[in-house]
Amino acid sequence: MAIVFFTYVVHIHLPKNVITLPFEQHVAPATSQLFKQGWAFFTKSPRSENFTAYRKIGPEQWRGEIRSPHSRPVNMFGLNRYSRAQKVEVALLIHEAPNDEWQKCYEDLAVCLAEKDHGAMAIHNPSPEPSICGHIMFVERVPEPWAFRNVTEKRWSIKRVLPAEVSC
Predict the structure, then answer these.
(1) Strand partners of residue 156
(2) What Pfam families does this protein map onto (predicted)?
(3) What region, left, alpha or beta, does residue 43 occupy, with left being phi > 0 and alpha being psi -120 to 50 degrees?
(4) What phi-psi label fits residue 7: left (phi over 0), alpha (psi between -120 and 50 degrees) or beta?
(5) For 61-95, how does the pLDDT look when each residue is reduced to its tens digit (9 = 90+)?
């Protein structure tokens, strides 16, 4: 019985298609009232921007500070929530920066990190267990469209960067 119920709930929230289930028109209003969010509540647009952070570890040397994706072995295949907390931490930190502090950069990541590493603004990390401290370059990037997968090997395009000195 649970499988039938689940099938109806899923099918009703999917885009219109050629398959119709028996009594679907009678069940749809009730399931829409019970499950108002639909599946969009659980997903994020794959084309939305992504913010990440790189720490300067030496002259012309940067290391990514974010431990995502969450499914990596270092994150215990998603069981360790540390990488999710880091994304919240990045959001808190970049929220402190006004838009005019960001520097546009449409080059490769290495070029952006090298050329835009000046004028770092001071930000205090309010996190109770900070993981992002020191000379940091925040990077806003967008995924390359899937349609261009055969045209370029890049997975991300850089939009802008924010050099910061993050104190903990």
Answers:
(1) 143
(2) SdpA (PF17418)
(3) beta
(4) alpha
(5) 999 988 877 788 888 887 888 888 898 999 999 99
